[in-house]
What does this fold into?
Amino acid sequence: MRFYAACLASYNNGRLHGVWVDASDDINEMQDAINAMLRASPFPNVTVTHPETGESVPSAEEWAIHDHEGFGKLDEYAGLASIVEAFNINEVAEKHDIPFAVLSEAMSDAAADDADDFVSDRYRGKYDSWRDFAEQFTEEAQDMKAIPEWLQNHIDWDSIAREFEMCGDFSSYRHDGGDLYIFWNH
It folds into this structure.
């Protein structure tokens, strides 16, 4: 994951000047890269203290995100705290084989703060369909051996799947028209 921090003074003067910044969980490291880019701006509009020499040096002061890789939706003026949050969500998403866009949307719908806790508390899994989820969930929750096999053949899994989908206990996110990711709502 990375983003392109563009100098707005340069942009407003018809020139592209910026830097690709690797997303990390270290705000200071990202800010240092952006500050170095701003000090190198061909259109400085302020004076700042150089962090290494202590000298007053010309610099631009404003930047914006003009491109990014791996973030899904990212606002042009997203702060570095938002970048760190997205980075942390991405780390958890990769660990659990959940697409970043899916986990990010699921967490925003639930107003969750901690991606690890969210996944361990709410993630039910990846499925091809609600029917597949209904069958697996029911088999996990019920002793299917207690139901005679001849009766099991008459279970309407599509109807049960619709019930799960509509009951409000679960949220689902389909990724790129393919896999269905299901989370508890409670």
Observations:
- The radius of gyration is 24 Å.
- The beta strands are 2-7, 18-22, 46-49, 56-59, 63-69, 123-127, 170-174, 180-184.
